[in-house]
Every structure is written in structure tokens, then in C-alpha cells.
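G., before I forget:
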Amino acid sequence: MILLFILGMALSGCSRAEAADVENCLMCHKYPSLARIGADGLVKNYYVKEHLFLNSLHGKVACRGCHTYIKKFPHDPVTEKVNCANVCHIKPPFAEENFSHKKIIDVFDTSIHAIKPDDSPLMKASDPDCKYCHLNPLYKRVDEKTISYGKSLDRCLNCHKRKGVTEAYHHMMHRLRHKTSRSSQEIVALCSGCHGNVPLMKKLQLTGRALDAVQTYEQSIHGKMTALGSEKAADCISCHASSLLHDIYKPDNPKSTINEKNLQATCKNCHKKINKYFVKIAVHPSLEDPHNPILFVLNNMVLRLMLYGTVFGLMALLFLETFRRRKDGAGMKLKSGTSWGKKKK
Amino acid sequence: MHKGAEMTATTEGIARPGQVAETLPEDYFTYVAGVGNIPRDIYKHVKSNPFGDLPRYSAHIVIQHILIFTTFIALAATGIPLHYADLFWAPYVISLFGGIDTAQVIHRTAAFVMIGACVYHLLTIIGSTIRKIIKKEFDVRRTQVPLPKDLFDLIHDVKYFLGLAPYRPKMEKFMYKQKLHYLAILWGSFVLISAGTALLFPEYIASLWPFDPAIIQDLARIMHADEAILALIVIAFWHLSNVHLVPGRFPAQWTVFTGRITREHQLEEHFLEYLRNLEEIPEEREYMRSLLSELGYAEKEGVPE
């Protein structure tokens, strides 16, 4: 135990010592008050908390690995955004060339969330960029049972080459065993940030089931299980994306996981023994759905009447009975052999 | 129907106490050969043991009831928070069970135990019915089968509650309340078990009923929750008050564990069953005869046996 503790101390010390700040950007950015008020009136903070950054996913990447547009010191006002598709990183273990997110960004660029030339300006502004979801979080401990070895390796191969990555497996604890580093609840919250905002969705001209997707999901058993913290129940991207995670398309796109032809395969990720009829079951059930007036009437009128009728009828009977029996001389407790002591006959 | 329901009793040839004779209903006294004339409100004068004097439920029924109510509590405690997952208290209740994934296992396990208890119950009543039919002891009036008399009893009892009738009806081992509840449990278990099965095995239901599995699942989802809430409310407010909180039963009735009912309760709500107890239990006949002679209602000389 003690040995492990000392080893842990030593290792945590090591990771700290390995600074990403080879060019001493922190000379200025270490000051918490390094901020200014932008033209839009918002405070922009340029402070970098060193120990948090060093323990984050990008902790080993030098500042200018991402912020490539900085060419001199002190640098000019920043106008460009970080391009995550840069080939700028360190070499990944057992690989020849430098690492890049380009492959997955290529997938993302074909998805529904990518900015397309014929999008409205509002849609262009609303589409999430990489950093909307990926916040450069700290390394997190994950429990080790959720995803099988082969499945998590599949995810590695989105970016890495097969050779070497198997050996590197143990180095990369982050998100390998969970489908995503966010919990299912956090995924739902992330997507609901926009998709739960019905006025915004209307402005973006989403229609039909896409409008109330969040509300109907929350009514479903998947939604309820996830809301209560289940890691097994399907969240948004369990169905709407493959292991690439970024390949989210409209249902009519043949590449979409929720395209009619792919639905069965998508459901089979969890429900192993399904047939072709299974996919008709509503994953986003809606009782307001006009195709189902019988269920609507049943749920909102018949069952409600039955419930209130039964409960109030029985309670009325109970109160009547109690009232009359009390009047007739029934005591509350059965004392010394009888509860009928209040009034003698 | 209800007036003719007495088996061994008759109201003929009874000497009534003079001072109240005019106001008493015709069937106020019930004559039992070898015991005497039992007044309808004798339950106000008998001595009862709070833990029960007379047999009501066999050990099998007591065990089944314990199994059903413990699993019911577990099922409701894990199921209701899931139905109301969006309410603030739901995660706290679920966390008591170690998270929703554990609660799911508990819910399913409790469901299978409850189904087992239902099967056990069916075996018990089918077996004992067959045994009674063979021994020629079977009497449909002592069972949970609803009969027209129950409706008349209910009307009579409501009249009594409103002060329009002087005494409660003479009822069988299972009165209208118990039969109503039993029917509700039969319907409720059918709905909950079938809907729960549909929710637990959507794959198999989709292959068994391929035409529109969506409507089956929606129906199951609605009915399972609705029936569970109905059952919970009826049990929490009506059943529990009826058996434990009303006058004479407060603070607890022990029939649930002892399987025995108090004498005054049996006489008040299950008078006809009490008459059968008199036939079957000599000690009870002895007790009633001595009580009646104290009260002056004992068998008079000259009344034929």
C-alpha cells in the first residue's frame, strides 16, 4: 500500500514537471487578471491555470501546437480560431507521423452539424464547432466494465493505425471504455442545450418529430433511465451516431444510423434478438401524436376517470362507514377485550 | 337473497325482550340450535383477543400475503420514481437502491417473486377447492366468487352508513369489500404482469405480435404505470386504513400474520361465517351459549332443538 502511494506521488510529480509551456507563454497568461472587455461588452479572460491545463487531455501539447497563428512575441490581437484539423500535435505512441483530428473532422464536415454553403446565417451561427462539445476536460477515472476491449479499439482506429495502438491501449485510459467521456446524462444535457430549445429549433426550420425530440425522449424508458443516472440506457448518440460519434445525419440520409435501412443494426447494439418489426416501436413516444387517438383518449380520459372514480368512491365508502360505526359506539382501540365501549346498548 | 342465506339459523319462535320488540327488525335474532338466539349486535358485547379468536386464513394465504406485500413495496419503491423520473425526489429514492441499474434488477427480481407468489396462490386455491369438492364441503358462498348477495349487502350497508337501516347486513367470510379488492387484484395482476412482460421483452413481443409492436409498447407503458399508481393509491389509502386504522382495528389488525380474526370483527362483518364457525368449533359454541345466558338470550325451554 505504502509503496503504491509513494509511486503514485512520484508519478503525479512527474506529470507536473513535464511542462507544455516550452515557449513561456505563461509569463503573461499566468496572471488571473489578464482579461479585457471586448467590443460586445463581454469580459474575455485569457488566464491559463497551469496545473489544470497540464492535467488536461491536451496538457502535453505546446500552446502554439494549436494556436498556430501566433508568430511573434508579444503577439498581435487574435482574430483566428483554433483549427482542430491542424497537423500540429506530438507523435502518438508507436506512430510515424504527427497526430491530427483531421479524419474525424472530415466525418463531421459531412454531418448535419457541419456548416454548409446553403445554410441560413442563423443556422451557420447555430451549428456547433468542435469546442462546443470538447472542452479539453481533465483526465477522469472511468470504471472498467462498460465497453469490451474490441469495441474500444474500434474507436481508437478512427484516428490511429492498428499497428501499435493495441500496445498503446493501456496508456489511453481516457474514454476508451466508455462510449464517450461524458456520462449519458451529460450527453442528453449537451444535445438538449440546443435541441430542447423549441423556439430556436422552429427558427432553424426543423419540423415534425425533430421539434419535440427532447421532450419525447424524456418520456421514453431510455430517457427516464438516463435521467436517473443509468449508463446502460440509450442516450442521444447511442442511436444517432455510430462509433464515429460525429456522423449525425438526417434520417433520410442513407448514411444515417436512424435511416430506415440501418435502424435494425442500430437497435441491435443493445437489443440483440430483434426482428424487422421491432424498429417500429417508438423510441420518442408521444401521446400527443395524432396517429394514436385511442391511446390519447385512454391515457387522458378513461384511465384518469377510472383512477379518480375508484379512489374517491372507495374513500367515500370508508369515511361513511367509519363515521357511522363511531356514532354506533365503536372505539378506536380494542381494549380489554372489546372496542365497543363508547355507548351501551 | 340475503335473508335466505342463513344455513342452520331460523328466526322463528323467538321470545324478544319486551322493551325494544317493536323497533327490532324481523331478523334481529338468529337462532342457532344448541346455542340460543344471537342478537345481530352481539359484537358489542363479546370479548375478543386482539391477535384473533377465529380462523380466517390458512398459513399458505398468510405466507402469500407477506410475499405479495413485501414485493409490492419493493416494486413500487423502484418503479414509481422511474415513472416520475423528472421530479426532484426521484433520484434520491433511486439512490437508496444503489442507482437505477441496481433498482432495475431489484424491480425485476421482485416481479418474478411476486409472480411466483401468484402461482403459489392459484395452486393453493385450486387444490383446496378440489379437496373440498371431493369431501363435499365446497360452498361457493364461502369463496371470493362475487354473487348477487354482495350487491344487496353493499346497498344494505350503505343504508346502514346513512342511518336508514338499523344493523349491518349478515355477510359471508368474504364481504363485498374483500371481493371488490380481490377482483381488482386479479385484474391488476393481469395488467401489470402482461404489460411488464411486454416492457421487459420488447423483442419477443415484437415477434409474437408483429402487426403493430409500437402500439403494444405504448399501451404497455401507459397501462403498467397507470395500474401501478391505482394499486398504490388504493392500497396506501383504502386498504391500509380499512384494515389498520378504522375504529376497532387501530393501531393494527394482526390477521395479516396470525391468520386469525377477532370475534367482534367476525360477528360484525362476517356473521354468516361466524355461524359456520359455531358449527365447526365446539369451544366457540360453548362460549356463545354462556354469553347468551348472561345476556338472557340463551336457548329457552320448550324451543325445539
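Residues 1-21, 301-305 of chain B have pLDDT under 50 and may be disordered. Residues 57-138 of chain B form one domain.

More on Monday.
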